[in-house]
Amino acid sequence: MILLFDPAPPCIQWCLVRNGSADAHAVEAKAGWQEKITADLDGCGHVKTIGYVLHNGGDTIRDAVGPITKESLARLADCVNLLPEHNSLTLAACRHWMECLPNARHILLCDTAFFAHLPSHVRDYAVPHALTRRGLHRYGGSGLGHEWAWKQIQALTGGAARKIVSIHLGNHSNLAAIQDGHPLETTVGFTHLEGIMSAEGCGDIDPTIIFQLKAAGFTYSIINRMLSTQSGFSALAGKPCQLSDILVQSSPSGLALARRVFLYQIVKYTGALLAALDGADAFVLHSAPSLDIMPFVREICQAFAFLGIRLQPEAGRCNGMLQQVSTADSAMPVFVMACDRWTMLNRWIQSLANKKEHAK
Amino acid sequence: MKKGQYILVFNCGSSSLSCKIFHCDEAANAELVFSAKAHRVGVEGKEASFLQYQIAGISAKVVVPLPDHRTAARQILEYIRSRNVPVNMIGHRFVHGGDFFKESVIIDRSVMERLQQCVPLAPIHNPVSLSVMHECRKTMPGLPAYAVFDTAFHTTIPDYAYTYPVPQSIRERFHYRKYGFHGLSYKYIARAAPALLNLPADKSKMVVCHLGTGGSSVSAIRNGASRDNSMGYSPLMGLLMSTRCGDIDPMLAIYLAVTYDMRPDDLLNMLTEKSGLLGVAGFSSDLRDIIGSVTGQEDDRAGLALCMYVHRLKKYIGSFVAVLGGIDALVFTDDIGVTNWLVREKACEAMQWCGLKLDRKANRSASLTDATLISAADSRIKVLSMPTREELIIAEEGARLIARREANDSAV
What we know:
The structure holds 2 protein chains of 2 kinds.
Chain A: E1 2-8, E2 11-18, E3 21-28, H1 33-41, E4 49-54, E5 65-67, H2 70-78, H3 84-100, E6 105-110, H4 120-123, H5 129-133, H6 143-157, E7 163-169, E8 174-179, E9 182-186, H7 208-215, H8 220-229, H9 232-237, H10 243-247, H11 253-277, E10 282-287, H12 294-302, E11 323-324, E12 334-338, H13 341-359
Chain B: E1 5-12, E2 17-24, E3 30-39, E4 50-55, E5 58-63, H1 69-82, E6 89-94, E7 105-106, H2 109-117, H3 125-139, E8 145-149, H4 159-162, H5 168-173, H6 183-197, E9 205-211, E10 216-222, E11 225-229, H7 250-259, H8 264-273, H9 276-281, H10 287-292, H11 301-324, E12 329-333, H12 334-339, H13 341-348, H14 360-364, E13 372-373, E14 382-385, H15 390-411
Parallel strand pairs in B: 1-6, 6-8, 9-12, 12-14
Antiparallel strand pairs in B: 1-2, 2-3, 3-4, 4-5, 7-8, 9-10, 10-11, 13-14
């Protein structure tokens, strides 16, 4: 039995994987949440492995997946302040269950590790050098998902796709440009706030606004809340709103604007990443299986018809496997992949076990 | 004095002030009769500030302290008076007209009040323009004046490109959105580049890189109209500039303020005045100095600064190629765009995916004063290095405003 944790403030998501089936939950991250989960589990005796997602591993945690040791726990504590709300939950979960279940395997799954070796001209911000040295640079994000997609594409194409643009569509959508297994660009910055707008986050905006709001009497904590939890799709729709709401093609005006902005941002960044890669050998678009992204994928690819990309008119909803949706004469193959996050995290843990087997 | 109008235009750069007088005939053809430029205005450094004049084939250079733009404007206006150059009207470039001004306007008292209200939109640029306006009214009283806005050209940017997805309450209260800048330059290039390339201006797609010594931006232009610009609500966003940071995670600003307890003014000053090329390289904000100091060794911060500058430029070119669905032409303009072949060469490297191929030899020997075609013969995209003419656009706007006013007067 495998227990998985993925912080999503103000909640912590968790999942029990048993006989290959994933049972997902979420609990509000307030005092006593660990006990609540233990009660829900009806004891933890059967849990043999626990995986913890870390959303920002800073400059020190550079493995996508690895066992947690005393030493790595100390490093984890050091990078809490980079993304306090998320990382503190990961740390709290680790500390709690390492104490409760000292004999289980404790595994850290780091979402920024894939980007640990971004070239410095991509990683750095153009701010005074002293700040860059203090770790104020881009970390990338959704590395576990992008690396997973890269591996799937390699397996399917037999290594023919050396350069890919990987597009994750979700409530925190983002892109990665990958060449020979290494990321060359990301749309995620110091945090997930940069880049494409999310369900509640503003994405790229002029930081001048922050200082103006401060001068107008707003506190940083209110500004932070406005930009991270009251912006994005929800701000344009005027009500809480998820990606599934804006994937629908015919929608009321607020949603329609959110959809237009979202599509535009994805096309724009795809172009930027193509420039970083000097063109790609494949596009891959991935999302949760519950989303029907195909109509949206068609619109994205339509924007790249000028490069000779053609989709099969009959390609329908993705069935879970990696699926090619472009025609044989398309200038570049386009793949879609429905990827359940828990299943993907579970496979990462399996891959660690396999690696160990192999090493023996 | 010939028939027609003598229009004096002022164009404030961040550390320069350019002044030209055009004679506009009734067919709105503009002929340059006088030009002056103040260099190193308000810059502290080893080199002295100076003024350069050109009139009737004669040029003169005067080394003089220029602590601010208003002083520079006064010196130039006095010179114009001493040479008896006729002036009928004065045009001013105003960087950020916000939502208040969508097109050029003759300045009267109410316009002046609204211009004042635009100061917070561009706290560095707008007050400088206002100070020059005040100086003109004092030194040459009674002359009609008008303002031309950099933001005006970008009013055609569609909602999906300009909308900031922040809460509606603050979006509406503070008019938060992308505005876009360098509009005068883009307006000129949008017309002149297609003419040069024999492309129909109303049926062409271009990416234009306005690379200045201070600020820089990129624009996507379709059928002569702006579709996107790399700058944002203010000129801080987009490309990496001489001292401005360009694109940055908004959370970084909050993080710095909270973690290091920095004052908002100091933070904004840091991102505006101490970042960009200067922040990365550490010793200079001048791209030429930086290129000259690249060592290629480990910890080569000059090399890193150049690499970042080019990388971000390439990303924007790629972005705008994508949103336009492919382009017919790529244009480099303004000081760095025209004089720096290395930046053009690097920006066009490895861009064959979209049909772009540079003629490296033509690029290296491109003219510093005239438009040069620098793409390879088999490049699908035409590439131009081309000086911009912002002052000409200001003068033409003036001639247009006069014509409109006369038409209105005769209608009454």
